[in-house]
């Protein structure tokens, strides 16, 4: 079997409500800081809101990294371009199908109870693909946005499982 390797990074669009929560948390932290300068009892809420704001902001910017290496797709989540968390590894032996979202080949999976994992950018103009795979004893529906090179490598690795159009 030939060696196939391709990788891609997809930046997740930050929802508007998260930006609003960020602004509210910063405002409350500043408010309690000012109140804490006048009345020392407010320093504890300042510290709590400061920590909450820090942890929220450190998880606000998300990128997904897809790496396809010889029949295995690895998906990692990267927070603020500094911390990485492994999301999923999918071997092509456990994969049933990869097709564009809305393809008729996916119709047989519509009425099945599938765990859905969304690793897309959240932008409507991007083409989203669906991978149906076995993880343990259950079927998983994985949404992702591979580029043309990754799709071609996947198709070369397993032509019957990958539907491009």
Structural description of this entry:
A four-stranded antiparallel sheet has the order 1-2-3-4, with helices on one face. Strand 3 (72-79) and strand 4 (83-91) form a beta hairpin. It contains three helices and eight strands; from the N terminus they run βααβββββββα. With 165 residues, it is α+β, with helices and mostly antiparallel strands. Helix 1 runs antiparallel to helix 2 (43-58). It has helices at 16-38, 43-58, 148-157, and strands spanning 5-11, 62-69, 72-79, 83-91, 95-100, 115-118, 129-135, 138-144.
Give a brief outline of the structure.
The protein has three helices and eight strands. It has 165 residues and is of the alpha+beta class.
Q: Kindly report the average pLDDT value.
A: 91
Alpha-carbon Rg, integer: 21 Å
Q: Helix proportion of residues, in percent?
A: 25-40%
Shape: elongated
| Number of strand segments | 8
How are helices and strands ordered from N to C?
EHHEEEEEEEH
End-to-end Cα distance, whole Å, is 25 Å
Task: Give the low-pLDDT segments.
Answer: none
Biggest β-sheet strands, sense, barrel: 4 strands, antiparallel
Q: Going across the biggest sheet, name each strand in turn.
A: 1-2-3-4
């Amino acid at each position: 079997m030939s060696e196939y390797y391709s990788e891609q990074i997809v930046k997740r669009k930050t929802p508007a409500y998260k930006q609003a929560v960020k602004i509210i948390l910063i405002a409350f932290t500043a408010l309690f800081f000012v109140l804490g300068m006048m009345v020392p009892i407010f320093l504890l809420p300042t510290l709590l809101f400061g920590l909450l704001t820090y942890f929220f902001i450190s998880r606000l910017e998300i990128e997904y990294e897809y790496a396809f290496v010889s029949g295995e797709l690895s998906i990692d989540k990267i927070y603020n371009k500094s911390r990485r968390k492994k999301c999923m590894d999918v071997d092509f032996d456990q994969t049933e199908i990869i097709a564009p979202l809305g393809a008729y080949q996916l119709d047989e999976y519509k009425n099945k109870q599938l765990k859905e994992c969304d690793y897309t950018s959240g932008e409507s103009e991007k083409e989203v693909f669906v991978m149906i795979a076995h993880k343990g004893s259950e079927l998983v529906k994985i949404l992702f946005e591979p580029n043309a090179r990754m799709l071609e490598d996947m198709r070369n690795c397993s032509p019957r499982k990958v539907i491009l159009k």
